[in-house]
Amino acid sequence: MLVVDDEPFLRIAVRRWFERTGWQVIEASDGDHALELLAAPDARRPDVVVADRRMPRLDGLALHAALLEHHPALAARFILASGDPGEPALVAFARDTGCPIVAKPFQLPELGLLAAQVAELAPPA
């Protein structure tokens, strides 16, 4: 799993919870950082990408667009987290991509179930 969020305490909490449940987790502080990690020659391909909607440099929507271009299999394994999931741009994003949106603040078990579903149903990365 790749967790992309500019809030360090949230990234750490998500990483710790998912690692305790058996996931391998990579953290990125924004979309640009996530793309840098994925471009590394020895980069692990995450099962799921969970990204925040609002981040400096490259936000969640822009990250998804970049994944479509450079890592299309990961774009299908994408979960967007937002404090305003009813935002018209996000409703359109979910409709157009089929990617789920999780409302912040979320419960970690809820995110865990969603991540497992995305990993199971998406095409191989």
Number of strands: 5
Q: Which class do the helix and strand fractions yield?
A: alpha/beta
Q: Helices and strands, in N-to-C order?
A: EHEHEHHEHEH
Number of helices: 6
The major pleated sheet works out as: 5 strands, parallel
Please tell me how large the radius of gyration is: 13 Å
Overall residue-averaged pLDDT value: 95
- The geometry reads as globular
Low-confidence runs: none
Strand order of the largest sheet: 2-1-3-4-5
Beta fraction: 5-15%
Percent helix: 40-55%
Termini separation (Å)? 12 Å
Plain-language structure description:
By secondary structure, the chain is of the alpha/beta class. Helix content is 49%, strand content 14%. It has a five-stranded parallel beta sheet, with helices on both faces. It is globular and about 35 Å long.
